[in-house]
Amino acid sequence: MKKKLLLLATSACVLTALVPPSVVFGSSQLSQRQPGTTQIAQGGTAVPVNQILQKLKGKTQVPIFIPSRIPLSGKMYYPTTAQANSYSISIEFKPDCGGTTVCSFGSILGQKGGEFTTKLEGVTKTLKNVKLAGGVKGVFHNGCGAYCTATLQWKTQGFMYTVAIKNGRESDLILIGNSAIQAGKR
Fold it and tell me: What does the domain layout of the chain look like in residue ranges?
């Protein structure tokens, strides 16, 4: 299968990856919606919620929140891990990626307890409070180390949830977070 070079960039970070031509972002681009929107991704990729739940249910005590859609078009893969006090769902461009930088888009995490990200000197570009669906308070963080990663975190009933995207934008993370919150506990 032919691969095409995909270049994702922010002002300070660049990520290059070989991805299948079928992987196209959103309706041609990642979401252009304004931060705080409650509209769920239209034209993005439906997340295979039932397949993911089969891998997590009964293996974790953390309430499971999974978005219905992500603002990305094309075939994605969702390897999962679960422990009693946490779960992790990777979002990857190809099977058996193993979370490597080149083929990983991001992740969704749930854990018992946890603290919000704080400013990391020399790494943090943006750190701010955001309002999510249903009045849920969240924290958006964008920072660069080996590559740039944007995260959105929120807490509910003693559990911390995190959505992370490489070179992600605030509006896309809020869209994914709102989708998970609006879908409710699965």
Answer: 4-183
What are 2's two structure tokens? 């032919």
* 148 vs 171: CA distance, rounded Å: 16
Q: Are 85 and 62 a contacting pair, CB within 8 Å? A: yes
Supply the pLDDT for residue 104: 86
Q: What is the predicted pLDDT for the residue at 21?
A: 33
Under the banding of pLDDT at 50, 70 and 90, the label for residue 41 is very low
| Gap between the Cα atoms of 145 and 167, Å rounded | 11
3-state secondary structure of 67: coil
Which is it for the CA torsion 60, 64, 69, 71, positive or negative? negative
Cα(78)–Cα(108) distance, integer angstroms: 10
Q: Does the model's pTM come out above 0.85?
A: no
